[in-house]
């Protein structure tokens, strides 16, 4: 089975999406052409309402009292995320960002000098910096698996590196921030499981875009943010912690009074569940907004989303590639809803600003976001467009026309 099986090609039936209704639920859809869902998706009305209702309750009865009154709804965050990624509520921890979740997970691994972290050339910038920081402090070794000629990690070569190095940690980013590449994380996971290696997956750009099934991926830990393709609020994410990891007693370096009980003056007892990886203080309105966003995404239907969002991106990629002076950069066996390209003659900020001026939201990726990938592609920057299911074909046409119109104006 290829990784495509774990994402797009499942034989589940997906109903066609009612795009007009979904846009009516999305106040921003009538204000901007939002092609920056890989940055932050547009909030849907039920998500905004969940947050505002809670903030109003805090105003009326007090912050602690409001969270107590909404305890059942807060629990829905865990059950919704669990249903989204095929696990149980006890395996889910809330996090203020994916990066925080990732750092907390890393802090639970007792690295020793010489331990190997095996990763890919397309793992997220902050993850790579975290590995370098671990190298500086603990003397771990970082090994990057090579890519295939078509783009994306060479799984066979990575498996060989697993056998040679017996890494303390294998880490893979499902979809990088800087290109449309979808990495074969379930194929990597099968090798990790066969060799009983600890496997951490960054699913930031894929959650809400593709079905995510932690059992099928075979990961021990998985991190995600809620604000991107899940369309949740800013300042939210989650960490999945497998039973294997919980049973083995992994705990973050700093556990607080929520993650552990202080059982005697010189003892503490970590929580039995993934709550071990959380902190006591919670942004409750945000947590409730996340619960609403995940519920909304599941109601829309992740299978239908997984068909539409990457397909819109595929059309966009094809049309941009036909414009002289545009170089589309996405490479790999499977490509998702991120489109990246360069434009002859333009500097990054003025080009983005010119699209901003036409009401088109986009993002820039710079070389330092992707040291390996951009070196391989010999580029210093690219523009990133990331459509989602609620974008329309008409918007796509406007974006293509805008890029084509700017192409000649060198700046
Ligand atoms: C692939 C990937 N991983 C991790 C992150 C970090 O997420 P957060 O900003 O929630 O920490 C991002 C954000 O762009 C990302 O694209």
Automatic annotation (TrEMBL):
Keywords: Aminotransferase, Transferase
One MF term in the entry's GO annotations: transaminase activity
UniProt key word Transferase: yes
Source superkingdom: Bacteria
Keyword Transferase set for record: yes
Pfam families: Aminotran_5 (PF00266)
Aminotransferase class V domain residues: 35-398
Protein name: Aminotransferase class V-fold PLP-dependent enzyme
Source organism: Dactylosporangium cerinum
């Amino acid at each position: 089975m290829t990784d495509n099986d774990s994402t797009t090609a499942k034989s589940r039936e997906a109903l066609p999406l009612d795009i007009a209704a979904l846009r009516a639920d999305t106040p921003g859809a009538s204000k901007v052409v939002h092609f920056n869902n890989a940055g932050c998706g547009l909030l849907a009305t039920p998500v905004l309402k969940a947050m505002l209702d809670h903030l109003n309750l805090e105003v009326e009865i007090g912050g602690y009292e409001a969270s107590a009154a909404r305890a059942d709804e807060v629990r829905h965050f865990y059950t919704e995320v669990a249903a989204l990624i095929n696990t149980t509520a006890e395996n889910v921890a809330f996090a203020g960002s994916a990066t925080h979740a990732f750092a907390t997970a890393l802090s639970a691994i007792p690295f020793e000098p010489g331990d190997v972290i095996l990763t890919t050339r397309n793992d997220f910038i902050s993850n790579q910096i975290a590995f370098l920081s671990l190298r500086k402090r603990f003397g771990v070794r970082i090994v990057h698996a090579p890519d295939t000629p078509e783009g994306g990690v060479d799984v066979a070569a990575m498996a060989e590196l697993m056998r040679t190095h017996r890494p303390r940690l294998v880490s893979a980013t499902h979809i990088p921030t800087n290109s449309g590449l979808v990495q074969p994380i379930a194929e990597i996971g099968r090798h990790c499981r066969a060799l009983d290696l600890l496997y951490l997956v960054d699913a930031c750009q894929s959650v809400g875009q593709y079905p995510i099934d932690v059992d099928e991926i075979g990961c021990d830990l998985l991190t995600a943010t809620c604000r991107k393709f899940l369309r949740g609020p800013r300042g939210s994410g989650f960490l999945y912690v497998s039973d294997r990891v919980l049973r083995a007693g992994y705990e973050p370096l700093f556990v607080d009074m929520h993650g552990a009980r202080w059982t005697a003056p010189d003892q503490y007892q970590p929580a039995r569940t993934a709550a071990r990886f959380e902190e006591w203080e919670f942004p409750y309105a945000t947590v409730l907004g996340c619960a609403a966003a995940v519920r909304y995404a599941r109601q829309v239907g992740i299978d239908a989303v997984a068909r539409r969002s990457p397909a819109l991106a595929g059309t966009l990629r094809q049309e941009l590639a036909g414009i002289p002076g545009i170089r589309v950069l996405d490479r790999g066996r499977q490509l998702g809803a991120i489109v990246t390209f360069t434009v002859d003659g333009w500097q990054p900020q003025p080009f983005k600003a010119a699209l901003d001026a036409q009401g088109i939201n986009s993002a820039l990726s710079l070389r330092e976001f992707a040291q390996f990938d951009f070196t391989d592609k010999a580029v210093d920057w690219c523009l990133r467009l990331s459509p989602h299911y609620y974008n329309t074909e008409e918007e796509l046409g406007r974006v293509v026309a805008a890029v084509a119109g700017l192409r000649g104006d060198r700046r």
